[in-house]
């Protein structure tokens, strides 16, 4: 189903007509006066230069002492969801005044482009995230196995893949489901079991896999998985 086009208008508010809700976003930008706004029981004041985003389904009511004039955008653009928590930038005031004049003078092009201009000015698109450096886990595994006798630390592993220790720790938890040292410990235990299956003495296996003593290796091999 094709959604209705977004619509800009200038509205004057006075006494309250009761609360209501609608199925589209409603964006209000104060032009003159002060509008008392209540959305789902939460009140706020909308003066000239202020703005508010009312999301679909939120019950709301307006009231002004005397009168208040606002630029109103009724929009079906879901991106307004991300602007609702951000206050309207004060730089929107000149744009709101221009679009209000465009509505008053029936300028079709300004009214057509106005919704997109308001969204861009209120909530500019986020900068694209830089592609993350991929970790070649197979290559890192081979390197760690080749340095099995050394007392490797998180910083050593992180440096190998050109990340900080904090970045590597986060990526290891995300991609391997465990901390870097747990990943390294499991790697060395796998190697130790392989060497023992070939008949190598415990002392030699401990030396090759970085354990501080044969007894430490024996205890690690007897420990239940995951502990």
UniProtKB/TrEMBL annotation:
InterPro entries in the cross-refs: AraC_XylS_family_regulators, Cupin_2, Homeodomain-like_sf, HTH_AraC, RmlC-like_jellyroll, RmlC_Cupin_sf
Keyword check for Hydrolase: no
Highest rank taxon of the organism: Bacteria
SUPFAM superfamilies: Homeodomain-like (SSF46689), RmlC-like cupins (SSF51182)
Cited Gene3D superfamilies: Homeodomain-like, Jelly Rolls
Keywords on record: DNA-binding, Transcription, Transcription regulation
UniProt keyword Transcription present: yes
Domain HTH araC/xylS-type residues, every copy: 138-227
Protein name: AraC family transcriptional regulator
Organism: Hydrogenophaga aromaticivorans
């Amino acid at each position: 189903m094709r959604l209705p086009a977004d619509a800009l208008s200038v509205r004057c508010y006075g006494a309250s007509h009761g609360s209501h809700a609608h199925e589209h976003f409603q964006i209000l930008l104060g032009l003159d006066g002060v509008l008392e706004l209540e959305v789902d029981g939460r009140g706020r004041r909308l003066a000239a230069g202020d703005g508010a985003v009312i999301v679909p389904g939120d019950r709301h009511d307006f009231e002004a002492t005397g009168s208040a004039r606002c630029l109103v955008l009724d929009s079906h653009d879901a991106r307004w969801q991300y602007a609702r928590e951000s206050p309207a930038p004060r730089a929107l005031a000149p744009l709101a005044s221009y679009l209000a004049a465009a509505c008053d003078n029936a300028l079709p092009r300004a009214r057509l482009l106005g919704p997109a201009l308001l969204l861009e000015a209120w909530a500019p698109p986020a900068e694209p995230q830089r592609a993350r450096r991929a970790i070649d886990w197979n290559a890192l595994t081979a390197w760690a196995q080749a340095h099995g006798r050394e007392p490797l630390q998180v910083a050593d592993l992180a440096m190998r893949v050109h990340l900080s220790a904090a970045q590597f720790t986060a990526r290891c938890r995300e991609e391997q489901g465990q901390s870097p040292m747990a990943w390294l410990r499991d790697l060395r235990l796998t190697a130790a079991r392989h060497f023992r299956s070939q008949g190598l003495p415990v002392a030699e296996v401990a030396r090759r896999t970085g354990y501080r003593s044969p007894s430490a290796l024996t205890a690690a091999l007897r420990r239940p998985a995951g502990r």
